[in-house]
């Protein structure tokens, strides 16, 4: 890899560190190509991605970026999983680590906050952006449906009382 290629990789990694909601760093020693492709496919499903890069280049790319302290995690054979959604990459990595013992999460970063293994696990337990939106919409919609039900209830009660009175009068 010549200097121009290295500079391009550093620039790409810098953009990843700036734009990602979360970056998860893991060791992947011993994983097969098929297992890595499976991980990449699962990350694509949540609009995330997986990147393997030289640790030295990643550390250079981290300089002046959020999560610069994450550079301490970059030792050995590391892979970085990232997504714009602050939870998606952590969820996928956590689930994948449970099924593949060769994929070991060592930490990550969420903005300026450096995460350890427990931190990544905690982020993975949080609801995703879509789940939060669904919860907010249901909270907003619930009062409206309750009001509609309350307004409609007296009318239906009056209608049933009137029909009962009408039946008694007809009998």
What can be said about this structure in brief?
The chain is built from six helices and five strands; from the N terminus they run H-E-H-E-H-E-H-E-E-H-H. By secondary structure, the chain is α+β, with helices and mostly antiparallel strands. A five-stranded antiparallel beta sheet has the order 2-3-1-4-5.
Q: What does it look like?
A:
By secondary structure, the chain is of the alpha+beta class. It contains six helices and five strands, in the order αβαβαβαββαα. Strands 2-3-1-4-5 form a five-stranded antiparallel β-sheet.
Q: Main traits of this protein?
A:
171 residues, alpha+beta, Alpha-Beta Plaits, 2 domains, 5-stranded antiparallel sheet, elongated
Query: What's the order of the H and E elements?
Result: HEHEHEHEEHH
Termini separation: 97 Å
Report the CATH C-level class of the largest domain.
Answer: Alpha Beta
Major sheet, described briefly? Answer: 5 strands, antiparallel
Task: Tell me the helix content.
Answer: 55-70%
Strand order within the widest beta sheet: 2-3-1-4-5
Strand elements, count:
5
On the 0 to 100 scale, the average pLDDT is 85
